[in-house]
Structure of EamA family transporter:
Amino acid sequence: MNATTTRGALLAALACVLVGGSFTANSLLGDYPYAGGQFLRYGLAFLLLLPLAGPGAGARLRALGAGRWVRLALLAAVGMVGFNLAVLAAERTAEPAVPGVLVGCAPVVVAVVVPLLEGRRPQRIVLYGSLFVALGAFTVQGWGRTDGAGLAFSVCALAGEVGFAVLAVPVLRPLGPRLLSTVVCGVAAAESALAGVLADGSGWLRRPDAVETGALLWQAVVVTVVGFVCWYMGMQRIGAERATLFSGLIPVAAAGTAPLVGTGSYGLAQAVGSALVFAGVAVGSGASPRFARGRRPAVVRQGAFERSLEKL
């Protein structure tokens, strides 16, 4: 790995660790209206990101065609609001491990879908690494009880996690990580408000208590502002396939932080699963020297592409 891909891997890893911590924060928001919480989270993140959008933001947004604006709306609806709604709906009739295991399969899906959309074959080394990551995520979380509805919503959560990466690929280059994060947070806040009014009427938003305020601030400032920008900066440098490998760190981080608030424990299964995730990331991202051997030409081409992105 060269310096650019190393930075990209570290940024993607940090983003996924922060998102994993958000699952623990979610456990403190069980009584807060879903749509209202999403509105506060993404609305505050939008306001914080707005000054960081960068020079020429307005011109770049005006240059987007209608198709890319539709894609941004889908990215917010599917990968952000829809993903969180699917997880919440799944956990009504399924144990939390069920959507967690399905979401852990996202690296496998992205490793296949992104190359096919670009007209090339999936990279075997990335696919092998994603299988390790999925197996590790399953080992960390186990498999819980569910019914048909819980399983269906868990599949929807998987689609949301995949969409968060795949839908962003064509708009990441013209917008850049900071402006992209700003725009999708603003769109997600508007979509959350609309969903809240339609679903819950006047009760869609209320004043959070002290614990809920702390959880919402963590999600907005740390997970969304810092996490989203780091995620898209990482994806810009190493591509969607390799960046999504690091989503295996989400259940690892969730399992590691759950004992801090008394919502879980960390034992042998979590340790073994974490090791499998780390192995999969090392294999698929090329961080392992043994598996990176013989892949130098691909790294050179990727480095040139990354340098061109940084000039945009």
In short: The radius of gyration is 19 Å. The longest helix spans residues 210-245.
